[in-house]
Each structure stands twice: as C-alpha cells, then as structure tokens.
Amino acid sequence: MKNISILVWNDFTHDKRVTNISKTFWDDGNNVTVIAAKPYRGLQVLEEKGFHIKRVPQFSSLYSKQKNLASETKLKNKMHKKSVFRFLKNNTFRIYITSFLNWFSFNFGLLLAGINSKPDIVYANDLDTLTVGYIISKICRAKLIFDSHEIWFFGSKYLNSSKFRQLMWRILQKILIRKPNAVIVTTETRAEYLKMQYNLEKVHVIRNCSRYEEVKPSNLFRDEFNISKDTPILIYHGSINEIRGIYTIVDAVKTLDNIAVVFMGLGSDLINLKEYIKKNNLDDRIFVKDAVKPEEVLNYIASADIGIQLFHYTFNHYTVISNKLLECIMAGLAVIANNYPEMKKIVVNEDLGKVVDYRKMNDIKDAISQVISKKNLEKYKSNAKKVRKKYSWEVDEYKLLELVK
C-alpha cells in the first residue's frame, strides 16, 4: 500500500477526472488523500468518498459564502464585492489583492497539507499545482506524477492572466516539465505536442472517459419541458460560454422543424443565452437547465437523442477528446461534433453521427437534418451503445496502476 497525495486547484465538487483517478488508486488498496481548495465558507473541510478529501482554505473563504446564482461569473463578482478590501475605491486593485492572497494562502496550505500527508507519490493536476507538488516530492522523497489536463498556454487561466504571470507560467513549465517521474495528458495529439515542445521521451495518454455504466434511456427532459415523444432532443451540456458554440447551435435550429434543444450547465453566458433564445421566439422548443450533480449527468443526457459539441477553435479544443462527447457515447446518443482530429477519429471510425466545421452554418443544419432522420438516428444510437465500453474509464485506468507499481 502506498500513500498517494493528489493535488488539485479547485474545490473538487465537479472534477470527474480527479474523482476517477482517486477511486482507481483507492480501489487498488492505496491510501489516497485529495488536497483541494476551499474558496468559500460552508464547504466541508473533510469528507469521505472512499478516499480522503482535505480542503485548504483560501483567503476569500474567511468571508465569502457560496451563492446559488445564475452563473459562475456572478458568483465570482459577488465574492469580490464582499471582499474585506471593499473600502478601496479601485475595484480592479481590490480583485488583484484578493487574488494574490488566495494564491498565496492556498499554495502555502497545499504545501503544509501535502507534507503532512507523508506521500510516497505526489499526483499534481495541471501546472498550477506542479511547483508545490515538486517541492513536496523533494521534501518527502516521493515520486511525482504530473497530469496536464490541457495544454496550459492555450487555456483560459493562462490567457486571462497578466503578462507577468504568463511569463512565470512559461518559465515554470520549462523548468519543471522534466522533473516528474511521469507526465500524463488526455490525447495522443497533446502527447506529441509536449514531446516535441520539451523534448520529452515519454508522455502517457489517459483519456478523460466516464466510468462504464449501462445507462438506460429516460424521459427526464420530456417530462420537465413537456416535449413530445416524437420530437428528437438535441442536448448541449457543459460550460455555457460563447466559445463553446452555444449561439451557433441556436442559430442552426432556427429554421429546422420537429426538433427540441436543451442546454444544461452554468457559465458566463447563461443569462445572455436565455435572452437570445427569447429574442428569437424559440423558448417553446429551446430550453435551459441548470447544471446537475455529476452523478446525475448521464441519466439526464440519456433522455436526449443527440449530443452536440461545436467548440470554437483554440489549440486546446483542437486537440481535445471532449469528456462531454464521451459522456454522450456512454449515454447511447448520436453525436454531432467538430471535425477536429481527436473527435473526428471517434465519431467517423465508430459511425456515431456527423462531424462539421463550426464556421459553416449550412453544413451544421444539414448534419442535424441527416442525424434526426429516424433511420440514421437509430443506427447512430445503436452504434454508441456498442462501443461505450471501449470509451470507458476502465479501459485506461490500468495504465495508472502500472505507473504506480
């Protein structure tokens, strides 16, 4: 049995990948501790999910409470408005101070909690935990695994950072990327990129799949939104942001009859999306539902017929196998997805639906029209059910166990 400390910079309430990793290590007989952030009051410090969860308070957790708000952006704004620095007139300066104190308090707490867990293996998720993970591994003489969930320099956290912080990220990755005993990514394309960029000999690929589940069709959406049983349902689930193609989906179904659409999730464009749907008089067949608990996602999307993912171009999107796409496969849905290489490889090779260029509206409309035809829809859904075991977490988890052993 090994002590494995898993570091993650979020509150670990919706992180399915880290949950899968933790459960795999735990089920193999290891002592697993997930060390995550506590960004607000009221979030439990210690829970049991088979493995241990230790949450490190951020500075803002001293005064901020979680609110049931319409979007993630409103939550962040609310937290900053309630800052203890609200006496400062410059709101931007106030946010910078709070952000720095959150960064410092979490990293310091992460370091102490990591050392205290006396790990044999430190598992750092993404670049923002790698520095502390490396220090812990040296102090505790532990092995270090680095799991890069995305190519950091094309992700939102990097792109939304100041020029100084972006420079620091680049320096840190260049210095630290060769330090871990193993580097993990989610796709072959990303593995090749990191190997070429940093002259790495080996990068392991562990896909971001759901655990295998015999998901049965349901009528959750039909019952909730009063959708006819003869009307195909198109589902988009995930972050409600423009860059995910949400408005493109609305525009694509404007002129299409006999189809309903459900958007399920939270994000910065949630309120704008609702207004856009209403403005186009589509609220009788395009519906919006708040995010559900991770364990309920598959049951909900199984009440749809077609999953759709139309990400705008970024390098991360171009190289991703969307975990939302894989969830649609697990739920037995037909799919419409970007013609990016990793997603195209699955959709085309397994004959699960259509791939399209998100910039070509006519192609998107044609793809939807073809997929919702009864003959095609039944074929694609049947094919998804046949291959969902192939795209399950259980296929890849043995690689993690081999790394540990």
List the helices and strands and how they pair.
Blueprint: E1 3-7, H1 16-27, E2 31-38, E3 46-48, E4 52-57, H2 72-81, H3 91-116, E5 121-125, H4 127-139, E6 143-147, H5 156-159, H6 163-176, E7 182-185, H7 188-198, E8 204-205, H8 220-225, E9 233-237, H9 246-253, E10 260-264, H10 270-279, E11 286-289, H11 297-301, E12 306-309, H12 315-318, H13 323-330, E13 334-338, H14 341-349, E14 353-356, H15 361-371, H16 374-387, H17 393-404
Parallel strand pairs: 1-2, 1-5, 2-4, 5-6, 6-7, 7-8, 9-10, 9-12, 10-11, 12-13, 13-14
Antiparallel strand pairs: 3-4
Helix pairs in contact: 1-17, 3-4, 4-6, 9-15
Features:
about 400 residues; alpha/beta; Rossmann fold; 2 domains; 8-stranded mixed beta sheet; 6-stranded parallel beta sheet; 14 strands; about 45% helix; about 15% strand
